[in-house]
Each structure stands twice: as C-alpha cells, then as structure tokens.
Q: What sequence folds into this?
C-alpha cells in the first residue's frame, strides 16, 4: 500500500479572507470536489473560514455559516487544519498570520504579492527550516501557471529575461486608448465603472502592483534576494493620446512592462511604459489580459497569456497550490521543491543595475515653440551627450501648446539621456517637460 491509500481522513483547509479570490477558491473547492478527490486520492475539506464580514451575500447559497468566524486564529491555531490559505492581502496582519501558521506546523497558500515582495525571504526561510510548503502561484498572473513553470518546468535553464504585462487595469487603459481613443482620465473612469479599476487605482496605474510581481518573478528566476526598493517604477498617468498616435506611426504600441534580465553580473529590473514593436505578440495582448514572455538559455522564448485577476482565474491558482501541497502532505515530503527553486542557503544578494546605467532606445516628445532653429538646438544638445537620433516626426501644430517634435534615438545610456533632457527642458523654446518612453526591441 502507498501512503495515499493509508491516509484515512480528508486534508483540512482553513481560509483566511472570503473576498473575491477567497470566494472563487471556495466555489472551485466545492464545485469540483469529486474531480479533485479523483486527482488527489483523498478529499479536501474546508474546516474553517475567517473573515471580518460574515453577512455579505457572496453568491454562495451552499455556504455553511457554521464554518465562518471573525477570528483568524481559529484557523491558525486549529491543530487539525493542514493548510492555511491567506487571502486578505496587504502586509499586516497577513504577515503575522502566515508566520504564526508556519510556527504551528501548517503549510501555507497565499495570493499576497505585496507581502511576498516585501517579506518573501523571511517567510520562505521559516518554511524551509520547518520543511513546510508555501504556495504562491496566485500572487502573479492570476490563472497563468507562471510560478510553477519557472520553478519546475524551466528548472534546467538559466533564465535570461522576463518581460511581463502583469497588471490588467493598466493594460485595459492603454489598450482602450490605443484601439478606441480617449485620454487617460476618461478611460480610467470607464475602467472604474466596469469594475476593472479600483476606486483608488494608484497601485495599478503607478506601476506598484507590477513592481511587486516582477520582484517575485525575478527572485524566482535568478534565485536571488531582490529588494523591492531597488525596482525602478514608473506608471502610465503621463501617457497621452499624442504619444499613442506617434508610437503607432513609428510602428510601436505602448504597454506597461515589467522587465527583469541579466546584464553581466547584474540584474536589470524595472517597471515603466514601454514601446514594443507592433508586430510582436506581446504588443498585441490587450484589455485585461496578462502576458509573460520568458527567455531561457535552453528552452528559448516562451510566452504565457491569460486572465491575470478575478475570482475564478486566481481562485484556480489558489486551489492548484492547495492540491500540490496536499500531494506533498500525502507523501510526507513538505518542502520537496524550494519556494524559489534553489536551496535556501544558496539564495544570494545580487547587484541590481541602477536605472542610469541601462541602455535603451528612447522615444522623446518635446513641446516646442514654432520657430526656426529649435530642432537644431535640441539635436545639438543630444549630440553633445553621445545620443544619436534615429528618426524625427514633426506633424501637428498647436499654437497654444507648442509644436510636438518626436524623436526616436538609437541605443543610448540612460544617464546621458537624463542629463541631455535636463538641459533641453531649460531652453526657453521648450514649453513643457519632455516625455520619455523607453523602447524594447529584443522581443519577437
């Protein structure tokens, strides 16, 4: 007999947080319980659910109210519960709950990208010392199984680069601006009405959510401690319809891109609006979809596309982790695969490339006075800083706001670009701060 055949009880689950993702996970666990039992060999049973709101209608007629409590410690301290599922989000009390659950010998599943970006090293270290599992597939990409793919599917590869569209709200806004027109504020308001954006959308539109996610992915891909504070982060609020139009004319689309790649001994990690060649698949991932483009030295180029948020896609990832952890429980093999894919003692600090040291091609939009010699003055300053111009566009004239002059540069050093723009923006013939958008061509 194997261990599954001798395991004579259900595996007990405790859920902390019955919001959107918690509701999705509950529905999947109950609706597909027979399928899960067939695949796992034993049933999964929800023993307790903790949430501060016990009265809201979550569209679950079958919900047993006897399972509910407002006290998370009734999940954490219950000796029968095998897996604690944290779905409340935020840093605290989520961190305290997860560390306490590990102290109590429980495996953990979480969708909490902010917590893992800030404190993942501490959480994974504690789990490793106790031979416990932390499942976090749902923290990045919703239903896209990207964590498992990097950690196990690509385990034989040196990961060279990750490019990700990992925030559905930002992608929806930029897609609508590109495909249908409208300025940023109008499209954001529409996204809020449709429920695609929070009433406070700052985490999404400022790139912070994407920074959380690329921190997790880079830590996993490179087996390194990546401080969130070192991730250069820039949002999309400054992108105008003019930039969308000029990008299209130049053969690009604008996406909020999360980037992590090895450059020599350093890791180049950043989040910002990016021009992508419009013929590339990643540039054409629209609306609320997420996409991850990963390059490995053996496997080559791979792209994953799917829904990056929502009750059922993210709930699917949560339940997938629960099943994986349960399989390890059945075989007495907690910690079978290290959380970051490499043994905890081998996780090292890695130098992070400063934003000023990156090399890129650049889109630059100047709003200038309509008079002779302006283009020459701007070009002269760029040339003085070793910046070569690849193309120039000068089309529409707006007398009150100035004439938009758009340039694409050849590859240049970021700090040279910034020094040049500081001088250009001080010219009396330049009427507004220059718009800068980096371009990525290494994606096909």
A:
């Amino acid at each position: 007999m194997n261990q599954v055949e001798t395991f004579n009880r259900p595996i007990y689950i405790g859920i902390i947080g019955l919001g959107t993702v918690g509701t999705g996970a509950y529905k999947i666990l109950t609706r597909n319980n027979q399928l899960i039992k067939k695949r796992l060999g034993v049933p999964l049973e929800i023993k307790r659910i903790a949430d501060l709101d016990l009265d809201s209608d979550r569209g679950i007629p079958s919900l047993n109210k006897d399972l509910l409590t407002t006290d998370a410690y009734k999940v954490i301290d219950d000796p029968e519960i095998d897996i604690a599922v944290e779905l409340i989000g935020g840093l605290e009390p989520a961190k305290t709950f997860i560390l306490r659950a590990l102290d109590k010998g429980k495996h953990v599943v979480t969708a909490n990208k902010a917590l893992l970006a800030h404190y993942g090293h501490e959480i994974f270290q504690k789990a490793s010392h106790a031979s416990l599992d932390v499942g976090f597939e749902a923290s990045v990409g919703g239903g896209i199984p990207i964590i498992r793919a990097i950690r196990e599917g690509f385990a034989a590869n040196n990961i060279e680069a990750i490019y990700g569209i990992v925030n559905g709200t930002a992608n929806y806004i930029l897609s609508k601006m590109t495909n249908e027109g409208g300025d940023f504020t109008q499209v954001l308001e529409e996204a809020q009405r449709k429920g695609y954006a929070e009433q406070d959308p700052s985490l999404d539109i400022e790139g912070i959510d994407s920074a959380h996610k690329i921190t997790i992915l880079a830590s996993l891909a490179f087996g390194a401690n990546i401080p969130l504070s070192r991730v250069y982060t820039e949002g999309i609020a400054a992108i105008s319809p003019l930039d969308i139009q000029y990008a299209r004319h130049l053969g690009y689309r604008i996406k909020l891109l999360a980037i992590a790649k090895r450059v020599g001994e350093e890791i180049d990690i950043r989040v910002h609006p990016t021009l992508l060649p419009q013929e590339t698949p990643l540039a054409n991932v629209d609306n609320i979809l997420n996409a991850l483009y990963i390059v490995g030295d053996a496997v080559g180029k791979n792209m994953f596309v799917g829904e990056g948020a929502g009750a059922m896609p993210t709930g699917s990832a949560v339940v997938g982790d629960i099943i994986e952890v349960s399989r390890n429980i059945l075989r007495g093999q907690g910690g079978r695969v290290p959380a970051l894919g490499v043994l905890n003692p081998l996780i090292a600090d890695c130098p992070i490339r400063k934003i000023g040291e990156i090399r890129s091609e650049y889109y630059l939009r100047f709003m200038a006075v309509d008079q002779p010699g302006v283009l020459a003055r701007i070009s002269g300053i760029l040339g003085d800083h070793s910046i070569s111009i690849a193309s120039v566009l000068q089309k529409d004239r707006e007398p009150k706001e100035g004439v938009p002059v758009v340039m694409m540069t050849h590859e240049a050093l970021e700090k040279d670009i910034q020094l040049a723009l500081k001088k250009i923006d001080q010219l009396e013939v330049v009427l507004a701060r220059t718009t800068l958008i980096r371009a990525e061509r290494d994606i096909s």
